[in-house]
């Protein structure tokens, strides 16, 4: 019977009333697979934290200006060189069609009087 009394139950915590600190049993050593699992959980957790940080900071990123929507027009008006810059993103479809028509109306790299005469003879 004395053997049973000296033995404590594993679920009971001893409390030292002198300094109000708990005395706990030492945690069991983890097996290799458990340690490896914990390492993988930490790794995945770190990756998720980085992704969350990027998503949370996404709204703070400044938008880069789209250079593709800029159109520069150079022309001569009354012997004075002129240059205009248009932001095509604000154009309506109708205005874009007009711009294409005006721009391509005077530009034809293959046009020459000899080409036109050879086409009419064929």
Question: Could you characterize the architecture of this molecule?
Answer:
- The chain has 122 residues and is of the alpha+beta class.
- The protein has a domain at 67-107.
- It is 43% helix and 18% strand.
- The protein is built from four helices and four strands, in the order H-E-E-H-E-E-H-H.
- Strands 1-2 form a two-stranded antiparallel ribbon. It has a two-stranded antiparallel ribbon with strand order 3-4.
- Strand 3 and strand 4 (80-87) form a beta hairpin.
- The longest helix is centred in the middle third of the chain and has 26 residues, at 32-57.
- It is rod-shaped, with a radius of gyration of 40 Å.
- Residues 113-122 have low confidence and may be disordered.
**With helices defined by DSSP (H or I, 4 residues minimum), what is the helix count?**
4
Q: How far is the first residue's CA from the last residue's CA?
A: 122 Å
| Proportion in helices | 40-55%
DSSP summary, beta strand count: 4
Molecular shape: rod-shaped
- What order do the strands of the largest sheet run in, or round the barrel if closed? 1-2
Largest sheet: 2 strands, antiparallel
- Would you identify the regions where 5 or more consecutive residues have pLDDT less than 50? 113-122
Indicate the radius of gyration in whole angstroms.
Answer: 40 Å
Keywords:
two-stranded antiparallel ribbon; rod-shaped; alpha+beta; 18% strand; two-stranded antiparallel sheet
Q: How are the elements arranged and paired?
A:
Elements: H1 2-6, E1 14-16, E2 21-23, H2 32-57, E3 70-77, E4 80-87, H3 93-105, H4 113-121
Antiparallel strand pairs: 1-2, 3-4
